[in-house]
From TrEMBL:
InterPro entries: Papain-like_cys_pep_sf (IPR038765), Pept_asp_AS (IPR025661), Pept_cys_AS (IPR000169), Pept_his_AS (IPR025660), Peptidase_C1A (IPR013128), Peptidase_C1A_C (IPR000668), Peptidase_C1A_papain-like (IPR039417), Prot_inhib_I29 (IPR013201). GO terms for biological process: proteolysis. Residues 22-82 form the Cathepsin propeptide inhibitor domain. One of its GO terms (molecular function) is cysteine-type peptidase activity. Residues 109-316 form the Peptidase C1A papain C-terminal domain. The keyword Zinc-finger does not apply. This is Uncharacterized protein. Keywords: Disulfide bond, Hydrolase, Protease, Signal, Thiol protease, Zymogen. It comes from Hypothenemus hampei (Coffee berry borer). Residues 1-17 form the signal peptide. SMART domains: Inhibitor_I29 (SM00848), Pept_C1 (SM00645). Belongs to the peptidase C1 family.
Length: 317
């Protein structure tokens, strides 16, 4: 009888703890649900994800895995919702516009580099519920290239690319439904790009309001496909490099070195490699500073994890 009572009390305490965690989550991430039914569904999804997080972190605390999970803005989403809402499948047709060059590793890469310390990386941004990651990846490498060439770090407009770099305008982009990073750079080659302050991000595709330009490029250089040595050389010697990855497993990432040998190579998310250490990449994401390590993820180096070296590029200034 006593043992049964203990079990009941423990279960009740666990439920109360989860309810309190959900309340904290809703306040922190400003979650508002349309009705009580949706609230209950989201609570149940939150609980399932919370259990996954706790089980994974128990392994982390035992030294069995190299990264830990955390509650974030995606904890009330199922993995399927996360993939379809936040991620965007790479279009199969990669446009080539005749401005592609191949990276040449003429100079040895430094042992480590972090371009954030050299003022080549803007603050972490947030794409919201819009599959516009490709524009953030492209803009990130453009910002780094401009800063390195001109000695000034500017924040460029992702919204201009969302609105204007489209299939209808002759490029390979579908706004919030994905696009090709290389095509975004080609748009900037043809039309230039303005500052974020004059064409603010809205997380929804609207009509193109392109007017004027702050920065243009000559084209882009690609890294040899699936070659991490070439990627390391480019990041080490050139600056922040746009990369595409499979981010299915990023939903609950909290910190540490992400190491998933089973990660798919079917890319669905654009990010920015801003540096590396001995055995991991330093990658800037576009999900806000509350996700991961203040908006960043460390990714294991050495076996092309999540296809990080599959489609990497940077602009030619």
């Amino acid at each position: 009888m006593f043992s049964k009572l203990v079990v009941v009390v423990c279960l009740a305490l666990a439920v109360c703890a989860n309810e309190e965690a959900f309340k904290t989550f809703k306040v922190k991430f400003q979650k508002n649900y349309s009705n009580e039914d949706e609230h209950q569904v989201r609570y149940e999804i939150f609980n399932n994800n919370l259990q996954t997080i706790q089980e994974h972190n128990a392994k982390y605390n035992q030294g069995l895995v190299s990264w830990y999970m955390a509650v974030n803005q995606f904890t009330d989403m199922t993995p399927e919702e996360f993939r379809t809402t936040i991620l965007a499948a790479q279009p199969a047709n990669l446009s080539q516009w005749g401005t592609t060059e191949q990276h040449v590793a003429a100079v040895e890469a430094p042992a480590s580099i972090d371009w954030r310390t050299q003022n080549l990386v803007t603050g972490v941004k947030n794409q919201g519920s819009c599959g516009s990651c490709w524009t953030f990846s492209a803009v990130g490498t453009l910002e780094g290239a401009y800063a390195k060439a001109h000695g000034e770090l500017l924040s460029f407009s992702e919204q201009e690319l969302v609105d204007c770099c489209t299939d209808a305008s002759g490029y390979n982009g579908a706004g919030c439904n994905g696009g090709v990073i290389q095509s975004a750079i080609d748009y900037v080659r043809d039309h230039g790009i303005v500052l974020e302050s004059s064409y603010a991000y809205e997380a929804v595709q609207k009509s193109c309001r392109q007017s004027g330009s702050v920065f243009t490029v000559k084209g882009y250089t690609e890294i040899k496909a699936n070659n991490e040595d070439d990627l390391k050389n480019a990041v080490g010697n050139v600056g922040p490099v746009a990369v595409a990855v499979n981010a299915n497993g990023f939903q609950n990432y909290g910190g540490g070195v992400y190491d998933d040998s089973g990660c798919s190579h079917s890319i669905n998310h654009g990010v920015l490699a801003v540096g590396y250490a001995d055995d991991y990449w330093i990658v800037k994401n576009s999900w806000g500073a509350s996700w991961g390590e203040s908006g960043y993820i460390k990714m294991k180096m050495g076996y092309n994890i999540c296809a990080i070296a599959s489609q990497a590029c940077y602009p030619n200034v």
